[in-house]
Amino acid sequence: MARKQLFMNKRSFELPSVVKWILLILLILFLAVIIFLIVLYNQIQDSKTAGFQVAEQRVIQESSIVDILKTSRFFGENGYHVIYGKTDDKVTQIAFVPDDKAQKITIVNEDETISSDEVRENWQQGCKNCSLIKIVPAILKDTPLWEISYQDEANRYVLEYVSIYDGSQYEEFRFKKMFQ
């Protein structure tokens, strides 16, 4: 009997209906924000590869490249797709495909260029206390180049352009930080 009375004195706890509605609205808002962030992330990722297929098809149609190995983007005065590919003869080529379809594609045989590893070695000899960010193919004024991005000893962001054929310096930009 004492046991039964103990359970009868316990009251069940129930949230007021206003609290239930507030929790439901917060849950719906949380889910909406998560869905929005997922959609936004996917759109940003898709924009990074926008135009890749069109540029790859153009290279296959307008050049001797038959097999695409890698595609990336370069933004100089104009936008370019940079496509590594192989010909029927297994020669690796780099194609610079301008966004403007009226401009012609610039193609370079990879065996006529210095490698990015050679560019890195030459750069390290000239800039011992610098921090390399990346080395990528570039094209400025229809001249194929390597773009070397790094931070120098003075903590400036540097874009250095060197010839893709012999590594000679073409152009250099140094940017200093205005804000910490």
Automatic annotation (TrEMBL):
Classification via InterPro entries: Cystatin_sf, TseB-like_dom
Keywords linked to the UniProt accession: Membrane, Transmembrane, Transmembrane helix
Domain Cell wall elongation regulator TseB-like: 55-98
Sequence intervals crossing the membrane: 21-41
A Pfam cross-reference name: TseB
Protein's recorded name: Cell wall elongation regulator TseB-like domain-containing protein
Taxonomic classification: Bacteria, Bacillati, Bacillota, Bacilli, Bacillales
